[in-house]
Write a structure and sequence with these properties.
homodimer; 213 residues; 8 helices; 10 strands; DNA-binding; 19% strand; Arc Repressor Mutant, subunit A; 2 domains; alpha/beta; Rossmann fold; seven-stranded mixed beta sheet
Chain lengths: 213, 213
DNA sequence: TAGATTGTTAATCGATTAACAATC
DNA sequence: TAGATTGTTAATCGATTAACAATC
């Protein structure tokens, strides 16, 4: 258990730092990085990088900077990426299909990426038993059962807006603690369940605002 | 030209309000809505709803609330959704393909949705001339030319991370002012060009943080 | 009129930045 | 040692919330 409640603003930057460290170590074999450089590459002010990291421990050395490998390991641990995280996807339409392919290929190439999509669900009987890449599509009725049996921890929701809330309610009742939602609808989840929204039309509408200044 | 520079936090909520108003008027034929109800439905405090709207004018009546139709019209105008916004998509892989289908079908069903995806680009000659739904895939070489000829204002980037920055540079040089990026990479754009990131792996990594509290 | 709700100002809250002593 | 850079505190900035006069 952590002492302070870390704000979501901080948590959102951690994967950014991790990505910078992974690229620097993979592409440049970099051993050390200062908060200045890490910040530059992540698009974050150096003082903020140090403050963010300091919530979790003392990872750097004065006058030297941060050991890339060590900080990488620590960030993975903090983000729970040092163990397998099992993910299910509900709604294998065009978008769901694409996300499966995108994700399966990524996780096959990069064995250290421990967020694994391992189960697909749909409510269309015509799709039951069908495979996308190497994953079988299960009937939506099996969602709760499979969440428990396969220890799924995150679900990706790519069903039509009208069905998203009921899918989420089912999943939450079965113990799901995190949801990545693509449906263009505001979902309600109980305290303790975390929601990330990937709502493309909202993003496009936001961008449209800036088009005549 | 607007008097105050409106913060992005405000702009992000406007499409949310618009969606609530559209649903209320379409599904419930609602005529009036208070900041209280609009806020409840959008997940925003009522005082913040009033403050956000007040940046752009006086749209409500004391003791009464907001006229749904009127506010809807005003929000559309503010967001530039009262005119056609033309969008191009670069990188017709699995994800790009799915976004095209998702978006074309949406815009065909909902004629009032004026953000239109009208051009596709890829660098794979095998795909040139191929159609996705009703849209032809053009060679990436034509990007700059087509941006100008078709008056594209937004591009959606679904190319691999390694190519995203060069695509963006090309597009920006040709006059693009807004970019929706799906590539898992931090893009650099000049002042005045707006960027929205839809980076799925960052979102999943963020969610993973919350999985053992 | 009485009740309701806006638009707006002041107060609060939270996040970022600046500054610097500690120390490698 | 001298220079560099961390971890941390204080100052600043910005966004949200509370409160209320105006008014429909």
């Amino acid at each position: 258990m952590r002492w302070h409640k870390i704000s979501d603003a901080v948590v959102r930057r951690l994967p950014l730092y991790l990505r910078v460290l992974e690229e620097a170590s993979r592409d440049e074999d970099k051993q050390l990085m200062s908060s200045q450089e890490l910040g530059d590459r992540a698009g974050v002010a150096p003082a903020l990088v140090r403050k963010d990291l300091a919530w979790f421990g003392e990872f750097g050395k004065q006058g030297v900077g941060y050991q890339v490998d060590y900080l990488k390991t620590e960030l993975r641990r903090i983000l729970n990426l040092d163990r397998e995280i099992r993910v299910g996807l509900v709604g294998v339409g065009a978008l769901g299909h694409a996300l499966v392919r995108y994700h399966r290929i990524r996780s096959m190439r990069n064995s250290s990426f421990h967020i694994n999509l391992i189960a697909l669900f749909d409510n269309d009987p015509a799709k039951f038993g069908e495979h996308v890449v190497d994953l079988e599509i299960w009937p939506l009725e099996l969602l709760a059962e499979k969440i428990k049996a396969l220890k799924l921890e995150i679900i990706i929701v790519t069903v039509p807006a009208a069905h998203a809330q009921e899918v989420v309610d089912l999943a939450v009742a079965a113990g799901i603690k995190a949801i990545l939602n693509f449906a263009p609808v505001k979902l309600t989840v109980p305290e303790g369940v975390h929601l990330a929204n990937a709502d493309l039309s909202l993003e496009l509408q936001r961008l449209a605002y800036y088009l005549n200044e």
